[in-house]
Please model this.
Amino acid sequence: NMMSLVEAARAPDYPAEMIAVISNRPEAPGVAWARAQGIAATVIDHKAYKGREAFEAELDKALNGLKPDIIALAGFMRLMTAPANNVSSTFTRFFQAAQPSITFWFCATR
Model:
């Protein structure tokens, strides 16, 4: 889960640094936890957008602003449109399956 990834990344020999957490659920407890750990946490509430495309455009904007090398998905349970399959396609993307009850995008740099 997200907390385990963050804890693992604290090891000096871990090959990545967690730079951000993005959640589409404002009430997700991991958002406050990440902030308490000094990790930037952003909420992009999908309910605030008229459709998937608008939400995905905002998500892509946030990811591109972070410039991560790796994006790990943990419980991201939203269907994505065909254009979103290329979300942040300029990055090397690895998808990490984690606890499905936590809906986060984790961003890391190598």
Remarks:
- The first helix runs from residue 2 to 9.
- The chain is about 30% helix and 20% strand.
- Strands lie at 17-23, 40-43, 70-74, 104-109.
